[in-house]
Amino acid sequence: MVLQHTETRPETARYDRYPTRLGGPAPHLERADPAVWGEIESPELASFDADGFAILDQLLTPAEVAEYSGEITRLANDPALRDDDRVIVEKSSNRVRSVFEVHKLSEAIADLVRQPRVLGLAEQVLGSKVYVHQSRVNYMPGFRGTGFYWHSDFETWHAEDGMPAPRAVSLSIALTDNYPINGSLMVMPGSHHTFVPCLGSTPAEHYRESLQEQEIGVPTTDDITALANRYGISQFTGRAGSALLFDSNLMHGSSNNITPFPRSNIFVVFNSVHNTLLEPFAAPAPRPEYIGSRDFTPLPD
């Protein structure tokens, strides 16, 4: 069932408060929306408003890490999924890079995203019921794992999915140890307060290339330099079972993994039911459902 919420909300107006994919340089925009919409109760989220992220040291137990690691290995090796559009492979090595809609492909992961210890984090920050905008598993194998260039997820979700406002959060759950050396995620604390317009128009079906290597919808080197000088750079490291909850507009990226130590994570995007998708703001058509869901049914239904 696709649930269309009819609540009147300013963010549904077609006026674009975060213009991007432009023909020429534009100044950075200070965020027009709150970072925290609800009541923060969990101590781990105390600095979320200021930093745009929170680290949860032991979200999963070792037994759960083993269970979910088995699940993502099964998905990566499932021959029935090999030609599925939801499976993204590396350009150079043909290895699996990501599997999308994992909360629909795995009952175990479907149960995980509905658990209060997970769902409650998103609801505290977003101040409402939420639904899954996107879920995936990211694989970064040893030696040849390809990183993700600096970007704001919201810029893409706004431009290509039609997400009106940055009222969404991502939860990245580590299933392997994250070291400073194996392509761990880098973030710019506080950068979620600044929106960076990007250059270039969005080609039709751009998602087919961008999910392997994104070139449109990324900031310029001058943008990254300015943000890094203003906010600095931190890195998410920790044992398997730890997690990072971060704002949709937080600037982040990762380098290639040339170590023998693989890195993989479950990645779930929660969007507020008061921030449901419109038509794309800077793309000819919406991306497929498995990338940007238009089923707005609140969890845990």
Explain this structure.
It is a single chain. Helices cover 22% and strands 20% of the residues. With 301 residues, the chain is an alpha+beta fold. The chain has a seven-stranded antiparallel beta sheet. It has a four-stranded antiparallel beta sheet with strand order 6-12-8-10, with no helix packed on it. The chain is globular, with a radius of gyration of 18 Å. Pfam families: PhyH (PF05721).
How is the secondary structure organized here?
Elements (H helix, E strand, L loop, with lengths): L28 E2 L17 H4 L1 E4 L5 H16 L9 E3 L6 E5 L1 H4 L1 H8 L1 H11 L3 E11 L7 E4 L1 H9 L6 E7 L11 E2 L6 E2 L11 H4 L10 H11 L2 E2 L7 E5 L4 E3 L8 E10 L29
Antiparallel strand pairs: 1-9, 2-11, 3-4, 4-5, 5-13, 6-12, 7-11, 7-13, 8-10, 8-12
How is the largest sheet built, in terms of strand order?
A: 2-11-7-13-5-4-3
Question: Which percent range describes the beta-strand content?
Answer: 15-25%
Largest sheet: 7 strands, antiparallel
Structural class: alpha+beta
Helix content: 10-25%
The separation of the N and C termini measures: 11 Å
Counting DSSP E segments of at least 2 residues, the number of strands comes to 13
What is the number of helical segments per DSSP (H or I, 4+ residues)? 8
Q: Name the overall outline.
A: globular
Question: What is the H/E string?
Answer: EHEHEEHHHEEHEEEHHEEEE
Mean pLDDT: 91
Low-confidence stretches: 1-12
How large, in whole angstroms, is the Cα Rg?
A: 18 Å
Biased composition (Basic and acidic residues): 1-19
Keywords: Dioxygenase, Iron, Metal-binding, Oxidoreductase
Protein name: Ectoine hydroxylase
Enzyme class: oxidoreductase
